[in-house]
């Protein structure tokens, strides 16, 4: 299109200005040398960018370096794309700017490559600025085949890396104004854009909130003044208004909700915070984080114990590998005073997750439950533990009870596993002896500490304590 053509011309001018600035900067740091044969490729690039280009002078280069396909337009585009990739890897940004010029001027279908390589150039060039980058990105969005969302995201990430929040605010406000002028505008998109503006308000509010906390504590001299506290309250109110609008829509707006809850808690509006979390959960019942946020909030403020446990039980059902499973198990034990078949299977499922396979809390609970069942002669619980081993031993032996102990493993976990096998009198296939040999390789003081830990595992559990104490 005509607008795309003029945008390409502006991109060329901008890349040229960056290239010229780098050439004039005599104090520019030396870039690492590229592994690419740049001196051999330079004449070809000059030919490709010449106004009266006809054919490439291949006689000056080795045949292995330059293919005959350069005589075709697609071949030239492929050559320039590969050259740009090589220069990116070699951090040769001056030459990269020249290649991007050639790609842009040649009217090749390489808009996305121009965007990606151009952003890399702006991120690493010492003379780049958010203003220059914004100019580049704004015109790249007019290119025909460039991904508009990717273009916007590139600029957002660029500004976040440099904490350029003022430019980000302008960026979102511009998009909000453009969206509201559209014929088929979406209220949801409008509120999401306002949510991002709320994030920027939240970032601005954080240091003011920290200053207010300091003024109320021991560091009163370094605290916020009354004017700063009022300014922080104004910013917080603006951010919370932007966040609340998202509650009218379904969707994973976790990043906005947790910021809203933090602000409401800071100013002591616990009822409003609880109402927000419940409304968010009602709109997103399948969102695991919505359940977790509500549970952790209720637990943090010790509110509504029964409802809190119901939410925790749902979390365990939705994600058996979640660390909150241990909270639920500990709560059940505090009520019943002993383990149960359901609890044993929940912990086993938790430990089967790769992230939790070496969880000391999980193996301690399972080990102490087995010891308790033996001491109290709880036949039903013992039968459950042995049945669990019978069902899973096929993959538990290589997965959990491998005789080849990893050097980075946790000795306390090894002891819990060995104790579990010994207490239940299970066929360990040499696992217990492997643990003993591994512990014997450690120093005497360390071995004594681990022996003390092993004796604790074999003690009769106190009925008034939890199994993970």
From TrEMBL:
Pfam families: TAF1_subA. Residues 1-23 form the signal peptide. Keywords: Signal. It comes from the Eukaryota. One of its GO terms (biological process) is transcription by RNA polymerase I. GO terms for cellular component: RNA polymerase I transcription regulator complex. This is Putative tata box-binding protein-associated factor rna polymerase i subunit a. It comes from Ixodes scapularis (Black-legged tick).
